[in-house]
Design a protein that fits this description.
Layout lengths: L1 E8 L8 E9 L8 E11 L6 E7 L2 E6 L4 E6 L4 E6 L32 E5 L4 E5 L12
Antiparallel strand pairs: 1-2, 2-3, 4-5, 5-6, 6-7, 8-9
């Protein structure tokens, strides 16, 4: 499991700068074996700049807002490309990402309960179904 943590370095003693820091962690599902793979500062804010107001991640790209401007920024640490986008007439209050929506598919249980007598369970990504009977039902006929 790989986890990307984004955090602010808000310490004014740190050369008078704010920073956006990424830490890439590799961890097992248990708490053992966790280690920091990378820890680098990818954006510093000057004392005159307001630090980011909101931040999110999508497919390896970090996106953040500027609390005083009508823009948002993005950076992909792997590609070292930083982009500024002009967006709205008002300042941002937050930022979030909506991922790709999966393709619509038919549910094999949606029509006539999948021709199951009792319980229809879609499986294989909705391409097939399994009919099951209630517990302790002797001689149950699963399908109609």
């Amino acid at each position: 499991m790989v986890i990307l943590l984004e955090s602010y370095v808000g310490c004014k003693d740190f050369k008078g700068m704010y920073g956006l820091v990424t830490e890439l962690h590799c961890a097992r599902l248990s708490q053992t074996g966790r280690g920091i793979l990378t820890n680098e500062r990818i954006k510093e804010f000057s004392p005159s700049e307001e630090p980011s107001f909101g931040m999110t991640q999508y497919k390896g790209t970090l996106l953040w807002t500027d609390a005083t401007k009508t823009v948002y920024y993005s950076i992909n640490p792997d590609r070292r490309i930083r982009v500024r986008y002009v967006c709205c007439s008002n300042r941002f209050q937050a930022i979030s990402v909506l991922g790709d929506c999966p393709q619509a598919s038919t549910n094999p249980c949606s029509y006539s309960n999948g021709h199951c007598r009792y319980i229809c369970l879609p499986n294989d990504g909705g391409r097939s179904r399994t009919c099951v009977c209630p517990d302790n039902e002797p001689g149950c006929h699963k399908e109609m």
